[in-house]
Amino acid sequence: TFEMNGGAISGNLTTNGLGGAIYLDGGNATIKNGVIQNNAACNGGGAYLKGGTLKVEGGSFDTNIATADGGGAYVNDGNVNMTGGSFVNNEASADGGGVYITGGNFTMNGEAALIQGNKAVMGAGVYLTGGDPLLQSGTLRENIASQDGGGIFIDQKIVELSPVAAVNITANKAGHYGAGICIVGTNGTDA
Fold first, then answer.
1. What is the mean pLDDT of residues 159-166?
2. Contacts of 57 (CB under 8 A, 6+ apart)
3. Strand pairing of 106-116 and 126-129?
4. Which member of 33, 93, 145, 181 has the greatest number of CB atoms within 10 A?
């Protein structure tokens, strides 16, 4: 288990590995305050979690780089719960500029939660495969995907946005499909 309440983790590099700043195999990571910035890895420039849950309540993942997936964070078989904090200006050479999640759920439920200015091929803000998205409040803006899903890319899930949801998905860009949201593979079709 890892908890961050302040300070900075910056300037770390794993050339061919996982988790530029943080690698956690099993267990939960909670970010309450502080900054994770200018780190780099193959997957999970800022953080890599295998199993468990990444809870982002405050603080920021800022300007981290992945040479493959998950510029800010890569979560494998785990969940991301975001009630505050930010993923800003992170970049992945492949998918999930801000966050890459495989085999787990993504929850965004906090007015202060911000995913902004991230870049990737697909899912510049968030790339989600094999899990459920719950978008209730927060902001995804100004993320840029060279292909699909500027704000969020969702693979093989049916998505419902509540009519009372206060999530703002604005000013994102995509080279092909879904500048705000791109959903593929639901019942064999693209949405």
1. 66
2. 30, 31, 32, 83, 84, 85, 110
3. unpaired
4. 145
- Model confidence over 166-185: pLDDT tens digits? 889 999 999 999 999 999 98
> Residue-wise over 154-169: b if at least 16 C-beta within 10 A, else e?
bbebeeeeeeeeebeb
The strand pairing partners of 66, in sequence order, are 41, 92
Q: Of 159, 161, 153, which Cα lies nearest the Cα of 102?
A: 153
Measuring CA to CA, which residue among 67, 173, 32, 50 is closest to residue 101?
A: 50
Quote the tokens at residue 60: 């920021």
Spatial distance between the Cα atoms of 87 and 97, rounded to a whole number of angstroms? 9
Q: Token digits for 99?
A: 């966050």
How far apart CA 81 and CA 151 sit, in angstroms, is 17
